[in-house]
Amino acid sequence: MANSYITKFSPNKKHIIAVLLLLTAVIFFGIGIFRAMRVSGQPDITELTSEPIAHENDSIIFAQKPFESCLNGASKESPVGIVSFSGGLTDSYEGYIVNIAGKYRTVIVKNNSEEFDNLMNGEKVTGYFTHKNSCDALPGHIDSVNSHYALETPFTKENCSDLGIMIVSRKTELLSFLWGMPFLIIGLISLFLAGSPFFNFPESINENNPDTIT
After folding, report:
1. Considering the entire predicted model, what is its pTM?
2. Whole-number Å distance between alpha carbons of 108 and 88
């Protein structure tokens, strides 16, 4: 009597690796779509006339130099730096103060970038509002600015916003989903090379009752 076969789903390691690559691609696509949407609104600074209009992750374009003041005992004004930090192995960021939507707020920009130069020259830059690294999140740095700079009006909780601005490259943000493309391509190729995850297995024959398949 010829053996009978049943089809079972039995993926191997190659299938699992391919699926993980495809899931990674989906994650990168999702992150890329979020980043693109975050800068797609592009409202002008003139549209943001009051603080309640600005919300977390809202996008904005503006052309305004950082706030300038003199250090105590100095006579020359310079941009008021509020924070410096590293963002990875090679990237570093600087934080300054701008006056947007009726309040002072921190603006974070990547060092040695086109966006940094544009900010310092008062040219148009793209950013999004964020609570991270805002005046409210950096009370110690705000106090340091007040004590080291000769400010006519000190920065306070009342005139400093809890929404800062992260300056980004709009082109980079819109194309960030492309990080998922290599994982998608390699994942599809790996899935193709792995073949079908369904295999035919012979069914066992019960010796005492040949008509019964187990």
Report:
1. 0.78
2. 15
